[in-house]
Amino acid sequence: MTITRRRFLISSGALTLLGGLAACNKPASSDPSVIQFWNNLDNQDLVTYFEKHFVDAYPGPGKVKFSNKSTDTIDRLIQTALAAGSGPDIIVTPGPSTGTTEYTKAGYLVDLDSYAAKYDWDRTFASWALDASRIDGKLRTVPTQYETMAFYFNPATVDKLGVPVPRTQAEFEAYCTEAQGKGLIPVAAGNADWKGANEWHMVVALNHGAGPAAVYEALQGKLAWTDPVFVDAVTRYTGYFERGWFGGSVNDYFTNKFSIQYEQLAGGKAAGLISGSWEFAYLPSYFGAKAGNDAKWDWAALPSLGRDVPTDVWDLAIGQSAGINAKSGNVDNAAAYLNFLTTGKTAILQALVDQNAAPPPIKIAPGDFGSGADPRTVRLYTTLSTARTIGYTTWTFFPQQTETYLIDSFEKVITGKLSAADYCAGIQERFTAELRAGKVPTAPKPGVQLS
Known about the structure:
This protein has 451 residues and is α+β, with helices and mostly antiparallel strands. The protein has 20 helices and eleven strands.
């Protein structure tokens, strides 16, 4: 139940500072009856809901003291507290590639394998999610929410276009050409609110353009990121930007806010939106009675954008992870609460219905949802939990410095200041160093059953 677009990338300088201060040994909490937990919830409604259903409803052992922090500051606050040997008993991170690895290397996180056995997490969580959360073979965090990418559309707009929602590269290009020809923005896009939106496009370019099998081989160090399959995919995808298919133009991409994109989709000015499953929480405010219109939205799997790439690739992502502070005086109680927070299916799925709160990657079947669940939500999470053709998101399966480079340098490619080949060479340079340092998260093999 956090803002899932948060992708705070810890700088190497900040981590060096943390390592230098780690000699302080003040315990995070000396009262075993109190479990300190910090999180970053979007708004007061979410805070109130969370406190009622996930704090006050916790039966123990121990009692939870919850503190909501700003999305802009929570990571820095946690880093500073950990460096001083204090902080909350339960530590949230933006996922395996950003925070978890570095916190583990600094000795800040408890080994959770004994608790995984105690609470039978291997049967509860999707295996890929626990594998991605292991650092040097030990489970250091558990995922608190997961995500995927999707193609969003307004059915009325699609009807007016007279072309189907795209499933293949040829259909996508025809769809965008038709939309642009009728004066529409083919795909609403922009990073004015969040520069990290750049990496969403790279997830699509790599997994749906080059294909997940190639991405997996590269993550294992068996295929270079400079291989033509990646250079061609990046060239093709960034070429769509040059045609004005994303956001209207490259210049508009830099000024478009999320609210503008939602309004364009709802108002029939944009023919689609490529984004993550977190949009389930934002789109309802712009469609239907709540927005004062009769517009509707729906979603589909992203189209294949490369030759021989499947049309049903599901990009896997851990939106947030949580571990236990190694300096906690409440490790057993903190583990009990962590289990309650991430495996209580009834409360978790009700929060998904009530607040569009992304669930952890636990095993979900259609019958687990109540009658009030949005069919679009049920379809997404039940499909995702049984998917076999998986993609690899940058913020879950790529190491931290490689991810940072992907985000920062993407803008140079779409503005013509950096070639796709040189961009891929930059990815390879950083990835090679991080692979040697053991900083690449574990990725599930293609074709592995997720449930």
